Amino acid sequence: MNKKLNNFKKRFVTLGLTAVLSLSSLGLVFADGARVVTLGANLTQEQKDTMLKYFGVNKDEVVILEVNNQEERKYLQGVATEAQLGKKTYSCAYVEPTKSGSGINVKTANITWATPAMVATTLSTAGLTDADVVIAANFPVSGTGALTGIMKAFEDATGKPLEEDKKELASEELITTGDLGDDIGQDKATGIVNDVKTEIIKNNTKDTVQIAETINNVVNNYNVTLSDEQMAKLESLMEKISKQDYNYSEMKNALESVSDVVNENLSAIGENVNTGFFDKIKSFFEGIVDWFKGLFGGNNNDNSSILNNTNDSLLGENAKIDATDKSTINLPSSEQVEGFFAKIWNWFTGLFDGNDSNKVDDNNATPPSNEESNSDSTGDSSVDSLEQNSTVDENVQPDSSINPDSPVENSSENLNSTNVSNNKDTLNTPDSENTTNQVINY
Question: What is the pLDDT of residues 426-440, one digit of tens each?
C-alpha cells in the first residue's frame, strides 16, 4: 500500500512539474510576442538588420511584421497629400504594451516631421492608452507613415484590434497637426490639438458651438492666430472625435503627459502657454524635478523599457534623436546644464513682465525642440517655421556614395534638406546619382 502511495506521489509531482514548465513556456512565448517590430517594406535586408540592431533585439526575440505603402494609404488617403503619402515605406516601429497608467512614451530616431509628442497624442486617438513606442529609420524620413506600423504592431502585440473609425481619426489628426505645425511650430500645434481634445473628451462636449469656443480658448492660450481654414479643419476633426466613445479616465495619463512635454519644449525656447500663474508655477517646478532626474538618474529609471535599449550611436552622430522622456536619450552635457539655468532666467522674466527682451541667449539649450532645423536662418526668424522651407521634390534618390551597395530605388516622395551622415556602414541610405543631404517622406 505504501509503495503504491509513493508511486502515486511521484507521478503527481512529475505531472505537476510538467504543468508548471508548460505554463512557464507559454508565459515566455507571450512575453516575447508582446514586443512587436514593424519594418518598412522598401528597406533592403541589410537596412532591416541594422534597424533590429538599433532596437536592440534579435529576430527570434520579437514578432516582426512588414508595413508597405498600400497599408499606409488605407488610412492616410484623402487626408494627406500625394507628397505626404509617398510611394515607399522606410520608417520602422518597435512597440510594447505597458501596464495600466503608464501612458504613451515615444522615442524617435531620424524622424524629421512627426515629433514624439505629436505621435503620442495621436496614438491616444487611435485607442492606445499604455505603450512604449520607438519609431526609427536608417536615414532621415518625415515619419508620416509610422503611425500605420505602430497601430499594426499594437494590435498584434495585444491581440485586440483597434476600432477602424479611431484609426482613421488618428491618421487625420496626425496630418492636421503636422500641417498646422508647418505654420506655427510642431510643439504649439501638438499642444493645441492635445489640449482641445482633452477638454472635449473630459467634458463630453458635443455641441458644435461649444467645440468652436473650446478651440478659440486654447488657441488664445498659445498666443497664435489661425486662419479660417485652419480653424475649420480643427473644428471638423474635433466634432468627429466628440462622437466617439472615448473614456477620459483611461486616456488621462497619456494626454497629460503630452501636455507636460509640450510645455517643457516651449519653455526650452523661452515660450510659455498661458494656463494661469499657479499652473505655470507647478509646471516649472515639475520641469526642474524631471530635469534633475535625467541629470543624475540617467537611463536608470526603467532599464527594462524598450526606449532605454536602443543603440542611438548606431545611426551616426548626425542622427536626430528625440523622446517624450528626454532621459532615454543621453545625459546632459555641460553646455546643456548652462542652457538649463538660462531657461530658468527666461522663465522668470517672462512670468512677471511678459517681456522677451531680457531673455538669455540659449543656442546651446538641449534637448532641442523638434521645431529646430539645420537651416541657416538667423536673427529673429521664428524657429516654428524653419522646416517648412526645406521641402524639395523627390524624383531622385539619396547619394549613392553613402551606400554604393544598396540598390537604386525610384521614389516620388518629398525630401527635406538636412545633414545626413556620410557613414555608409551606419546609415544604409538608398542610392542616388545626383542628390545629397536629403530627407525622405516616410
Answer: 444 454 333 334 555
431 DSSP β-pair partners: 408
Mean pLDDT by 10 residues, the chain (442 residues): 53 45 37 77 96 94 94 87 88 94 94 96 95 96 90 94 96 96 96 98 96 97 95 97 96 95 92 63 57 48 81 91 89 48 63 49 38 36 34 34 38 38 43 44 60
Q: Which residue has the cell 515619419?
A: 143
Cα–Cα distance for residue pair 211/43, rounded to 1 Å: 43
Gap between the Cα atoms of 166 and 124, Å rounded: 9
Give the pairing of strands 131-141 and 104-111. parallel
The position carrying cell 529576430 is 59
Whole-angstrom Cα distance, residue 230 to residue 215? 11
Q: Which grid cell is 406?
A: 544598396
Q: DSSP letter string over 283-320?
A: HHHHHHHHHHHHHHHTTTT-TTSGGGS--GGGG-TT--
| Full DSSP string of 116-158 | HHHHHHHHHHHT--SEEEEEEEEEEE--TTHHHHHHHHHHHHH
**CA–CA distances in Å: residue 308 to residues 204, 323, 330, 338:** 37, 11, 10, 25
Distance, in Å, from the CA atom of 122 to the CA atom of 114, rounded to the nearest integer, reads 10
Sign of CA dihedral 318, 180, 136, 312: positive
Residue 105 backbone dihedrals phi, psi, to 5 degrees: -115, 130
Reduced to 3 states, what is the DSSP secondary structure of residue 27?
Answer: helix
- Tell me the whole-structure pTM to 2 decimals: 0.67
* Beta-sheet pairing, 415-416 with 391-392: antiparallel
Contacts of residue 152, defined as CB under 8 A and 6 or more positions apart, other chains included, come to 38, 65, 67, 71
Closest CA to 57 of 36, 41, 40, 43: 36
> CB within 8 A of 57, min separation 6: which ones?
35, 37, 94
